[in-house]
Amino acid sequence: MKKRTALVTGGNRGIGLAMANKFAKEGDRVVILDLSAEPSEEASRVTEESGGAYFACDVAKQADAERAVREALETFGFVDVLLNNAGISRWRSFLDTTEEDIDAIFNVNVKGIYNVTRPIAGSMMAAKKGVILNTASMGGKWGQPLESAYCASKAAVIELTKIMAMEFGPYNVRANSLCPGIIKTNMSHDAPHADDFWLEKTPLGRLGRPDDVADVAYFLSTHEARYMTGQAVNVTGGMIMY
Ligand code: NDP
């Protein structure tokens, strides 16, 4: 079978890097788009070993995102799997959330998905194949005090994924969102709660690891998940069940 190209945004570390590692391990060529000018050591290794590449870009900026996607398409021809994973969070009370917080969070978490997907989805629809996975969050369904803008942005990701599924489905392009719970990365490290706060809500009795999410993402990209689209798939250790 022809080697697939998987493009992951925010793949320099955390969940995105685990996705990059998983897809590469399964034989895919991995392309990473990330804000950092230079790849992390592991991102550099995984892109090189899989035959992919690293492109620095800010997904929140349309021209920059389109430039990076164009370079990726010129280099590799086609993106089979798009993982819109880059995201940011800021812990603030509702009343303390500033206009700048709201703009920064929505520009990366929501607008970033439009910026990267627009130039890729057209070629997927023309080829009548392709898979899109958007990293949303449990917070997009549940809500979490001190994360109002983040949770609102992730609810938006869940909804825009459903629209992608409806608009792209007739062209055999599937789109699903992932809703991780508390996954140990830099982002969750910034949360103002001790691990026990989350653990007592988690039936499986441990917090998540980036590879817990990456494994589900990989499954959703495969033929085995061919009849799944428009879903918001929880990876929370049971913390939420709807
Ligand atoms: P990290 O903060 O560990 O990693 C985020 C990555 O995204 C970094 O590599 C970062 O780049 C990159 N990034 C940030 N902003 C931009 C941008 N404007 N353009 C391009 N790349 C950018 O976060 P996680 O791995 O934890 O999160 C990954 C996704 O999972 C996010 O969408 C997050 O909301 C979601 N999520 C995470 C959960 C968790 O508990 N960790 C729970 C639920 C959802 P750089 O290294 O240069 O800063």
TrEMBL record:
<keyword id="KW-0560">Oxidoreductase</keyword>
<dbReference type="GO" id="GO:0008206">
    <property type="term" value="P:bile acid metabolic process"/>
</dbReference>
<dbReference type="InterPro" id="IPR002347">
    <property type="entry name" value="SDR_fam"/>
</dbReference>
<dbReference type="Pfam" id="PF13561">
    <property type="entry name" value="adh_short_C2"/>
</dbReference>
<protein>
    <submittedName>
        <fullName>SDR family oxidoreductase</fullName>
    </submittedName>
</protein>
<comment type="similarity">
    <text>Belongs to the short-chain dehydrogenases/reductases (SDR) family.</text>
</comment>
<dbReference type="InterPro" id="IPR020904">
    <property type="entry name" value="Sc_DH/Rdtase_CS"/>
</dbReference>
<dbReference type="InterPro" id="IPR036291">
    <property type="entry name" value="NAD(P)-bd_dom_sf"/>
</dbReference>
<dbReference type="GO" id="GO:0016616">
    <property type="term" value="F:oxidoreductase activity, acting on the CH-OH group of donors, NAD or NADP as acceptor"/>
</dbReference>
